[in-house]
Amino acid sequence: MTEQTGVRRPRLSPEEARERILTAAGEILDASGYAATTMEEIAARAGMAKKSVYRWWPNRIVLIADLLARRSTVHTVPDQGDTRAELLELIDTIAGYTAGADGGQLRLLLGSIDDDPETERTILARIIEPRRALARTVVQRGIARGDLPADIDVDLLLDLWNGLLTYRSGYRRAPVLRSTVQQLVELALAGHTPRLR
Questions:
Q1: CATH number of the domain enclosing 102
Q2: Cα torsion for 130, 72, 171, 174, to the nearest 10°?
Q3: Closest C-alpha among 26, 22, 126 to residue 73
Q4: pLDDT by residue for the chain (197 residues), tens digit each?
Q5: Which of 63, 168, 179, 182 has a 20 to 30 A CA-CA distance from 119?
Q6: Do 29 and 98 belong to one domain?
Q7: Residue 49 structural domain
Q8: Residue 136: inside a domain
């Protein structure tokens, strides 16, 4: 019962309680950032005891990883029959995520993980790998059309693009110009890509 009204609150199902906690964590993360998203603040915002939060998540790193994974949507790049257009859209998609709020929170989260292989696996499997799989598909379509070298090192190419875009948005705070995106695509189409050999 609440002290003020004497009315007993309805008991939440486990699914409802988890959803309330994740919603509260998302609100704090979006409004105040990673540092302010503490287990105490999350419990308070959700109107629940801290032990209820700890019931499902051992610490805020695991909780925020779960939240970001749940919010992570992968923008598909459809087959347009045009490798140039698809690569431009792919790099725009990567740039949008790395410069966005969730991309920034993911960088902070990855920087705070200290010898936690389970959380690393969660982030890889639920956030990074789905994006990576989409990007590989787009590049492999270009290879199949003969627009990109057959021996291209797809993973290294994607690392280079992601690394540049993450560095620009997360560390230099410099915009990624449209001309830069176009140059990256033109270099790839001209065969200036890392190779497997």
A1: 1.10.357.10
A2: 100
A3: 126
A4: 444 545 555 688 999 999 999 999 999 999 998 888 999 999 999 999 999 999 999 999 889 999 998 988 888 999 999 999 999 999 999 999 998 888 888 888 888 887 788 888 888 898 999 999 999 999 999 999 999 999 999 999 999 999 999 999 888 888 889 999 999 999 999 999 999 98
A5: 168
A6: no
A7: 14-56
A8: yes
